[in-house]
Amino acid sequence: MSAPFRTAERGRIDRSFELSFTFNGRQLTGHRGDTLASALLANGIHHVTSSIKLGRPRGITAAWAEDTGGLVQIDAPFPEPMMLATTVELFDGLVAHGIPGQGKLAADADPATYDAMHLHADVAVVGAGPTGLAAALACSRAGARVVLLDEQTEAGGSLLGGTETLDGLPGMDWVAHTVATLAADPDVVHLQRTTAFGHYDDGFILAAERRGERSDGTNHRGNEAVARQRIWRIRVKHVIVATGAHERPVVFADNDRPGIMLAGSARTFLHRYGVRIGSDVVVFTTNDSAYLAVADLHDAGVRIAAVVDAREQPGATRQAVCADRGIELRSGALVSGTKGGDRVTHAIVGDDEIACDTLLVSGGWNPAVHLFSQVRGALRYDDALGAFVPAGELALCSVAGAAAGEFDLGGCLEAGTAAAATVLKSFGLPPVRSATPTPADPTPTTAPAIVWFVPDAGTEARQFVDVQRDATVADLRQAVDAGMVSMEHIKRYTTIGTAHDQGKTSGVVASGITADIIGRSVESLGVTTFRPPYTPIAFAALAGRSGGSLFDPVRRTVCHDWHVAAGAVFEDVGMWKRPRYYPRGDEDMDAAVLRECAAVRGGVGILDGSTLGKIDVQGPDAGVFLDMLYTNLMSSLKVGMLRYGVMCGVDGMVIDDGTVMRLADDRFMVFTTTGGAAHILDWMEEWLQTEWPHLRVRMTSVTDHWQTFPVVGPRSRDLIGEVFGDVDVAGEVFPFMAWRDTWLDGVPVRIARVSFSGELAYEVNVTGWHGAAVWERLIDAGRKYDITPYGTETMHVLRAEKGYPIIGQDTDGTVTPQDLGMNWVVSKKKADFIGKRSHTRAENLNPMRKQFVGLLPVDRSTVLPEGSQIIERPDNGELPAPPVPMLGHVTSSYRSAWLDRPFALALVKGGHARIGDTLAVPIGDELVPVEVTGSVLVDPEGARRDG
């Protein structure tokens, strides 16, 4: 069935090509060249969705990105939220539904490809309407390199939605000829479907090109060979902004009903898409432009019930438009409200209610100065236009045509040519003279009336300034009553201008209404700042090819395949895939971890610790450099030994910990946490390059070069001694925190006596080329000792039992070494190190700071949730009335095989002095008593570490 509101002939759509689509569960048809909005209107659908706060019916209000009501979610072929029906090109198989301001992200990965392009040119012309085409053509003829950008599907701008002629021919014939001429110039890049959404210093433009779901029959969604969208990064010597203007509404009671639309957009739907937007139309205008829609709609068979003109005396020519067609003209009148439900049914004019199914509104035009304003171009208020226009030109940017306040077609063509001539002169290129096409004789114009809203104190809560945000005149008045006089403050208080159209229709209107409320001029009040992006841009487009593993790289150790074969369950740690635990049979994580912990404490276990950050630091001043970074001395470390160290920020708070291995007098290996590796290298380089450039030091990351395998447990000495027979593993020969170099079948291996578990342990370090082979050699040799591979979860339990903190889990950026009970790691010999002075701040010496302690649930069964708050234990065992004073929180919590009970680590106010106290942890409605202990719960004497 043909769409009931489709005209018989008009429009630039391809009527021979029918497209099927579904909206809100209803099967409909449209044509190639339609947008989703034009297809809906052709089918008589105005009610698209409901408003975000009030749930009021909302519909399409404009023909492009300035639309405020046609927000939809694309459901198929792939979910995509927050799309404007006016900018979605209709394609076969499209499924969509209206959304009330908030969409739903897709649950599955986007199959489409996104890309980025870089382009350099002399001139960028933004907008392929009459002004932009004239400017681009003039620049091209003079030999300049030109990039022409336009967001529509085809060039033409305002000519796409009208009947204007140039040199006696249809305006679109001139557009076609001009586009063909530009296409023949190899120095011109013409990008349609491309929105310039950001303009930055030095002639830099960001633009988004849409290449998928096109109504020409191509659909690039999921086609890896063709990017669905591309972000263009464009650098030019000069930018000519020819972006046209947005028609603005007038605010009155119930001005948000479906069926209320901008008059110019109704004309666009008629001439571009062949759609009559209604059957019975009332037109409310303050200026001449709406009369073009009046004449064209009437001549297309639409009944114009009345024209309501706010001016007392519209021009004679405009009056004749109505008189010749028998249309009632009410001059000096205002539409004060509407009636209706899912669609407008009446326009209220004075005491009359005029029946209609569509109300067209035109409150004047706002030049689209966004790109000019984004590079801090100054704006001035034009009293005659009731709009803000550029106050002048910038060195690298000029504005022409309607964007500069010139609304006459002939004037726009001349402005484009003139702007090009000025730019060419600055380049030293003489302009090539050519004739500018001549439009039909312009109709005499009458000055517009500046009407922002129709005052009515009783309906201000239903006078919508920003339809997208349900923000009203009442909200503006409330902001003013709250003492706000800045539009920037008022914008944030009311949320006007913060939705998807970024204030294209509401921004200037809000300034006008606010100025009326305050009693100031609009010029003195100004308008809010225009910021990128001009229109919403998909995050996927901004990411380009940096998606999936290219955005969040997946790093794997050389033993990854072995872990997979062993059934490891992985977790992400600092971009690495690390085995979390190795379940056997039907074990869950708790059972597997208890088994692994018992195996390590009772025999021998092996961990893939290759993800530890490793930084090779070399140079004559390497020791001095590390002394300034760590809280303890590193320059006194002997070759062949290691030392544990802590790094602090300038505020004295712990930022990382790890070990330092001295390889030679001028060379150290710094081991960092897995997650902190990149940050710490950056931190070290920043200090070296900006504060201590005189130090003779150089460093590089070798994290990927070395694989590290801790072999841990009472039987570790036996295993290491057997595999590396030339290494004397006796404790008195190979002490704790020493390292030795050796060979295994010709492969160099470095073994270090380091323990992150409190057990006897050896860390086997080998180059990445041989890592997998050495791992398997250790596994094979360890079978006689029942060697158990263990993962990060077991590692966490083992270290927590020994009170070893994990930076970033047991610390939160507010914890000093002293808070951790690690005064011993802060040197009293060094004159200075990063953070030292902050350690003596009064607050850092406060005994009631949160300090690192252990917790033992009294019931011996409850595993405290990490992050749980800790409070005083009430005498009656009941949670006190709020506010409840919080003493701290649980940082780590596990079940211990060695202790045969759950335990936790925590940060507690004055915790070191509260050891032995009983506190409480609220879990749901229950208060769990916990005993405060020292942080070391297993082998506090350290005997197990030495075997």
How would you describe the overall organization of this protein?
Residues 461-545 form the SoxA A3 domain. It catalyses: sarcosine + (6S)-5,6,7,8-tetrahydrofolate + O2 = (6R)-5,10-methylene-5,6,7,8-tetrahydrofolate + glycine + H2O2. Belongs to the GcvT family. By secondary structure, the protein is α+β, with helices and mostly antiparallel strands. Among the domains are: 14-108 and 249-362, 3-Layer(bba) Sandwich (FAD/NAD(P)-binding domain), CATH 3.50.50.60; 454-525, BFD-like [2Fe-2S]-binding domain (Arc Repressor Mutant, subunit A, Orthogonal Bundle), CATH 1.10.10; 560-610 and 706-799, Gyrase A, domain 2; 613-701, Alpha-Beta Plaits, CATH 3.30.70.1400; 846-947, Beta Barrel (Elongation Factor Tu (Ef-tu), domain 3), CATH 2.40.30.110. The protein has 20 helices and 49 strands. Strands 8, 9, 12, 13, 14, 15 and 28 form a seven-stranded mixed beta sheet that branches. Strands 40-41-42-39-33-43 form a six-stranded mixed beta sheet. Strands 44-47-46-45-48-49 form a six-stranded antiparallel beta barrel. A hairpin with a 2-residue loop joins strand 31 (569-573) and strand 32. Helix 4 packs across helix 5 (290-299). It is elongated, with a radius of gyration of 36 Å. The mean pLDDT is 95.
Which helices and strands occur, and which strands form pairs?
Elements: E1 14-23, E2 26-32, H1 36-42, E3 47-50, E4 57-59, E5 71-76, E6 80-84, E7 94-98, E8 114-126, H2 130-141, E9 146-149, E10 165-166, E11 169-170, H3 171-183, E12 188-191, E13 194-200, E14 204-210, E15 229-241, E16 245-247, E17 260-262, H4 263-273, E18 280-285, H5 290-299, E19 303-309, H6 316-325, E20 329-331, E21 335-340, E22 344-349, E23 352-355, E24 358-362, E25 365-367, H7 370-374, E26 379-382, E27 387-390, E28 397-399, H8 409-427, E29 464-466, E30 471-472, H9 473-481, H10 487-494, H11 507-518, H12 522-525, H13 539-543, H14 560-565, E31 569-573, E32 576-581, H15 589-602, E33 605-606, E34 613-618, H16 622-629, E35 642-648, E36 654-664, E37 667-672, H17 677-690, E38 698-701, E39 706-712, H18 716-723, E40 739-744, E41 747-752, E42 761-767, H19 771-782, E43 788-789, H20 792-801, E44 850-857, E45 869-872, E46 888-896, E47 901-909, E48 918-923, E49 926-933
Parallel strand pairs: 1-7, 8-9, 8-15, 9-12, 15-28, 17-24, 18-19, 18-24, 19-20, 33-43
Antiparallel strand pairs: 1-2, 3-4, 5-6, 5-7, 10-11, 13-14, 14-15, 16-25, 21-22, 22-23, 26-27, 29-30, 31-32, 33-39, 34-37, 34-38, 35-36, 36-37, 39-42, 40-41, 41-42, 44-47, 44-49, 45-46, 45-48, 46-47, 48-49
